[in-house]
Amino acid sequence: MLNAAISQVIATMGHGDTLVIGDVGLPAPAGVPVIDLAVTRGVPDFMTVLTTVLTELQVEFHIVADEMQSVSPALAAQIATLDLPQARSMSHEAFKQATARAKAHIRTGECTPYANIILGAGVVF
Fold first, then answer.
1. Cα dist. 117→16, 50, 64, 125 in Å?
2. Are the C-beta atoms of 14 and 101 separated by less than 8 Å?
3. Residue 35's CB: how many other CB atoms inside 10 A?
4. How many CB atoms lie within 10 A of CB 122?
């Protein structure tokens, strides 16, 4: 991981804390720190950011929007190949509300609809 801000957030996450990785259009709630990586459309892409974060974060659960499966099935399939624990889903509106409890919001340059995930921190022991 080369991004110091992301590494710092991950290092300070406790069990059950959440981290959002979002597409370019996902609104970040007031009070949630944003780490804005977006440079241009698609850069960096969602999957690159997600797989990089997963090299440092022990994940106990993850949440996506229900709409991802029908609107962006290729992305849903890519996420499924990661074998993340405890898959949960909820409506996009509920998902946006859940982001208000996140430790941080990482904004990517991804423009695929519903390319958003909430990662719940686990423990390494």
1. 15, 9, 5, 24
2. no
3. 20
4. 16
Global pTM?
0.97
Q: Which domains does the chain have, with CATH numbers?
A: 4-121 (3.40.1650.10)
Residue in 15, 62, 92, 105 annotated catalytic = 15
CB atoms inside a 10 Å sphere around CB 80:
11
Handedness of CA 105, 13, 81, 89 (dihedral sign): negative
From residue 69, alpha-carbon distances to 40, 56, 64, 115 in Å are 25, 26, 9, 11
Burial of 55 (0-12, 13-18, 19+ CB in 10 A): exposed
- Three-state secondary structure call for residue 52: helix
15 is annotated as an active-site residue: yes
For 9-51, write each residue's pLDDT tens digit. 999 999 999 999 999 999 999 999 999 999 999 999 999 999 9
